[in-house]
Amino acid sequence: MIGAAWNLLLGVAWVVLTGDFSGGNLFAGLVFGYLVLALIQPQVPALNGYAQRLPRLVRFVGFFLKELVVSNLRVSYDIVTPPWYMKPGVIAMPLKARTEFEIAFVANLISLTPGTLSLDVSDDRRVLYIHAMFLDDEPALTQSLAELERRALELFH
Questions:
Q1: What pLDDT score does 49 carry?
Q2: Does the pLDDT of residue 18 top 90, yes or no?
Q3: In which band, very low, low, confident or very high, does the pLDDT at 1 lie, cut at 50, 70 and 90?
Q4: Distances (CA, A) of 138 to 73, 90, 98
Q5: What is the residue extent of each domain of the chain?
Q6: Which of 15, 65, 102, 152 has the smallest C-beta neighbourhood within 10 Å, fewest atoms?
Q7: Between 82 and 67, whose confidence is greater?
Q8: Rounded Cα gap, residues 51 and 4, in angstroms
Q9: Total-model pTM
Q10: What is the mean pLDDT of the chain?
């Protein structure tokens, strides 16, 4: 969080010093600020890991968009074709997420993906119950959702 605040401050300083108050110039200032913070990260303990977060975020967004498109196509195909291929069911997925925020983030990502819906979390916060539209192969679905959770949790560590 400290790194993001410094990056924003450096971006705004860039805009003020250049005198160009456009969105493109602010973006350039944020990029230059990010590069400066990445360079000084080894000397400033408060910035530890900041430079690695942006590439992880970009990889996660790409992964999630791919999953979103594939899920949309699968649900759309099932709706358009006359024989329905769906085999709905409920699965219990063990969670690696521990904090309330992480659990809510993972549950919402799963619910955003067409064909899956987060239903409930166990009382001990170790299991997430998920309704799946296509439960042909439960181990493969659980593995796919666990990969989504792993990549989502990488954003916070």
A1: 82
A2: yes
A3: low
A4: 20, 10, 23
A5: 2-47, 52-154
A6: 65
A7: 67
A8: 10
A9: 0.78
A10: 91
Residue with tokens 């408060």: 46
Question: Among all chains, which residue has been given the structure tokens 């998920």?
Answer: 130
Burial class of 110 by CB neighbour count within 10 A (0 to 12, 13 to 18, 19+): buried
For 5-32, give one letter per residue: b (16+ CB within 10 A) or e.
ebbeebbeebbeeeeeeeeeebebbbee
Written as one string, the DSSP assignment of 44-111 is -GGGTTHHHHHHHHHHHHHHHHHHHHHHHHHHHHHHHSSS---B-EEEEEE----SHHHHHHHHHHHH
Closest CA to 85 of 131, 132, 136: 136
Instruction: Name residue 43's amino acid.
Output: Q
Instruction: Give the type of residue at 59.
Output: R
Contacting residues for 154 by C-beta, under 8 A, at least 6 apart: 56, 60
Query: Can you tell me the mean pLDDT for 100-114?
Result: 95
